[in-house]
Specification:
Layout: E1 5-10, H1 14-25, E2 30-36, H2 39-48, E3 53-56, E4 59-60, E5 63-64, H3 65-75, E6 80-85, H4 90-98, E7 103-106, H5 111-122, E8 127-128, H6 134-137, H7 152-162, H8 167-174, H9 178-192, H10 197-209
Parallel strand pairs: 1-2, 1-3, 3-6, 6-7, 7-8
Antiparallel strand pairs: 4-5
Length: 210
């Protein structure tokens, strides 16, 4: 990444914040602007200096992420949000995407994967931890179906998109050509009425959980 990414950590566990701050500060192109324990502290930072991304814990002790995200939307701060959490329900994961988060990262995963997730979000992509939406990935749930039925190949490609695979990687995984992958993606875009992968992820979540 050629441009410095300005990061704010919002987590009520001080040891985790300090450890993560040191880790990310050592990454070229990353700068930790502040690490905060409360939403009010985070908004003080937001009001005085620009940020690129907030790493947000879902459970902030007495506070919860949804309330923070709602206020963030109301204030229209131009900042991306990556949820970094020990765990959350499938419904909370979907609601977080509806509230504007660009990704979900579970804390038990390796630190280098968090770096990749931050870069994905900063590139305008959705960074999704598969375990955070188990019901979606396992086949849209037992009783929920997308508005428009998907073929078996479309379902496989969609799951691969959620896994963050590139077209080339999907082609290798499914043993089909890369052009076939692109064709299936175009079919998914057409059925969902979207133009990008990130939009596809969000519309799939909304259709499944509404």
């Amino acid at each position: 990444m050629t441009q410095e990414t300005r990061i704010l950590l919002l987590d009520d566990h001080s040891l985790f914040r300090e450890s993560l701050s040191r880790l990310l500060e050592a990454e070229p192109g990353f700068r930790i602007v502040s690490n905060c324990a409360t939403a009010s502290d985070a908004f003080e930072v937001l009001n005085r200096e620009p940020l690129d991304i907030i790493l947000l814990d879902f459970d902030l002790g007495e506070e919860q992420a949804p309330a923070f995200l709602k206020k963030l939307r109301e204030c229209e701060f131009p900042v991306k949000v990556l949820m970094v959490t020990a765990g959350m329900s499938d419904a909370d994961a979907v609601e977080s995407f509806r509230d504007g988060v660009s990704g979900i990262f579970l804390k038990h995963r390796p630190p280098d994967q968090l770096v990749n997730s931050i870069k994905q979000v900063m590139n305008g992509e959705v960074s999704l931890d598969l375990k955070a939406v188990r019901q979606l990935i396992s086949g849209y749930g037992d009783n929920k179906e997308p508005k428009k039925a998907l073929t078996s190949r479309e379902q496989l490609v969609l799951k691969a998109v959620f896994a963050g695979l590139t077209n080339k990687e999907i082609a290798v995984d499914l043993q089909i050509s890369e052009s076939s992958v692109k064709a299936v993606l175009q079919q998914l875009f057409a059925k969902s009425g979207v133009r990008s992968r990130s939009q596809l992820v969000r519309i799939a979540l909304e259709q499944v959980w509404q």
